[in-house]
Amino acid sequence: MTKTQSFIIENKERFLSELIELLKIPSISANKEYKKDVQKAAESISDSLKQAGAENVEICQTNGHPIVYGEKIIDENLPTVLVYGHYDVQPADPLELWDSPPFEPVIKPTKIHPDGAIFARGACDDKGQVFMHVKALEAMIQSNELPCNAKFMIEGEEEVGSVHLGEWIKQNKERLKADIILVSDTGIISNENPSITTGLRGLSYVEVEVTGPNRDLHSGLYGGCVANPLNILAKMISQLQDEDNRITIPGFYDKVEVVSEEERAEMNKAPFSEDAYKQALDIEAVHGEKGYTTRERGSIRPTLDVNGMWGGYTGEGAKTVIASKAYAKISMRLVPNQDPNEITNLFQKYFESIAPKGVKVNVTPHHGGEPAVTPIDSAGYIAASKAMEQTFGKKPIPLRSGGSIPIVSLFEQELGLKTVLMGFGLDSDAIHSPNEHYGLFNYYKGIETIPYFYHFFANENSN
Ligand code: BES
Ligand code: MN
Ligand code: MN
Known about the structure:
Elements: H1 2-10, H2 12-23, H3 35-52, E1 55-60, E2 67-72, E3 80-86, E4 106-108, E5 117-119, H4 127-142, E6 149-155, H5 165-171, E7 180-183, E8 195-200, E9 202-211, E10 217-218, H6 229-238, H7 261-269, H8 274-281, H9 294-297, E11 305-311, E12 321-322, E13 325-334, H10 340-353, E14 360-365, E15 372-373, H11 379-392, E16 397-400, H12 407-415, E17 419-421, E18 437-439, H13 440-462
Parallel strand pairs: 3-6, 3-7, 7-17, 8-16
Antiparallel strand pairs: 1-2, 2-6, 4-5, 5-18, 8-15, 9-13, 9-14, 10-12, 11-13
Helix pairs in contact: 1-4, 2-4, 3-4, 4-13, 5-12, 11-13
Bound molecules: ligand BES and manganese (II) ion (MN) (2 copies).
Ligand BES is lined by residues 125-126, 158-159, 161, 185-187, 200, 203, 369, 401, 403-406.
């Protein structure tokens, strides 16, 4: 690995300037207006893979945004690492809350990243992390030290639910044959405390529409006499959780995996300061399900959150009106054994049942995803653990995350492959928020660690 590591050190500056170029492309998958930019980002990834020395690089078109594939097969008899990531990004709005434009990357130090962080949409989620893999591959190939086969599958629709990836995987099973899937699209506890993600939550996402009268009404002439959809919607939403912040939908918790007391004790030992947490968010108190710690609430317990709510008059001044319609977008994060379709159905049934006479309710499901847990005794996990221990000088802690990467459960179902979630981001990197950033420490630490993963994984498999 020595030549690889020297190659990385010698090419540090170039690795950064190339990432900056990638971050300039606004590859927002959710917005049709950016379709060309999404394609451009795919081409950029494909070019970088070729530059790294990958073969059979292809931009695979789908009915949505393309998937970039590339591989380096050195010996059919050696194990194969399949890298997954995404080059699409979340929309950047609200733009006015960014300190610098989202697609004009700048490097600035922060309290947590004294050596500098790169500020741009997608810096951490997930272009910066995908690019670590491309550069690590380049370093290994150019140093003639790639210890096993590598395949890359980088998609452009993760942020919109990986709509076409499932179908593509089914059609490309042969080409995707591998021994492990390696993903860097999660994070670590802190730069001093490395961790490996061992679980992701699932997702059920619905939009609700409450309709009252057939038109907007004068709130003086009709106020007090007809159901106001906005009042009703607020009331209905407040009924979805009880005073212990438990979700009231009948059957919602029926299948929830009960995590053992040992595992709970273990996860609560991981470094976490509730005071620092509150301070960073400017809140006086944390809030959540009774009987669980903040760490537990954010990983092993399911949730229900309103992501947006609108209707009626929201312009300047006071318009007196009872709106005809009110809307909300509601997400439920799910834990192992909860089925997203089942939960969506339970939500729909319950939400309709609590609607008073005088309004009509319409529930529209959006994309969802299944939860995933990954084993800590697999060759992949052991390789990741050894690799991080090598570069951080500290054994990483296994920890479940609250976020979702729905495609992970599909990898297992369709390809029969386990996933290792070896991400390098921090919760404070503001992914999906204004001023998203990625620490230079984390970017370089990732590039340094990945070749060790290949090394230890090849060794684990030859034992
Ligand atoms: N990379 C994130 C998920 C993530 C981040 C997991 C940090 C663990 C730690 C991914 O890009 C993402 O944003 N997923 C979405 C779901 C998707 C269906 C839009 C999410 O979790 O909201
Ligand atoms: Mn991501
Ligand atoms: Mn994301």
